[in-house]
Amino acid sequence: MSRSPGKKTVAGISFKDYEHRISDGRIENLYLFTGGEDYHHSQALRLLRATLDESLRDLNYSVFEIETGDGPAAALDAANELPMMIARRIVVIRAFDKIKDEGLDSIADYLKNPSPTSTVVFQAPSLDQRRKISNLLKQSCTHVIFDLLSDEEAASWAREYARGLGCKIDNLAVKTLITRLGAGLMRLSSELEKLASSAESGAIGVEIVESLVPEVREHTNWELQDAIVSRDRKRALALTMRLLSDGVDAVLIIGMLGYLYRNLLIAKEMSARNAAPDAIGKATNKWKNRDTEFYSRVARSSREELVYGVRRIAQVDNAVKNSEATPQLQLEYLVAELASPKGRIGV
Question: What pTM, to 2 d.p., does this model score?
Answer without folding.
Answer: 0.68
